[in-house]
Amino acid sequence: MFRCSANCCEDSQASMQQVHQCIERCHAPLAQAQALVTTELEKFQDRLARCTMHCNDKAKDSIDAGSKELQVKRQLESCVTKCVDDHMHLIPTMTKKMKESLLSIGK
């Protein structure tokens, strides 16, 4: 990207607008890659957050039903731990998907 941008600036025949457009074209793949990674990570975080919110809801329901605080705390910890464990298993697939998508940007 930086070499590409530098090459744009070396064209002495190009207008300022042409140089700017050239640099924008050079930056486009990086911007696409950043957007792709950001989107995938946001999806992952949202899924994990939904899972932990479900755990919180279950804990609140248990408290409202009269369960003991220590029991609810253990239930909440167990539920959140399961969320994390389940989502840890998604990381390799997410990483593979991002790598494949990033490779297609470079082509």
TrEMBL record:
Domain of life: Eukaryota
Database matches in Pfam families: DUF842
Family: Belongs to the FAM136 family.
GO cellular component: cytoplasm
Name this protein carries in UniProt: Protein FAM136A
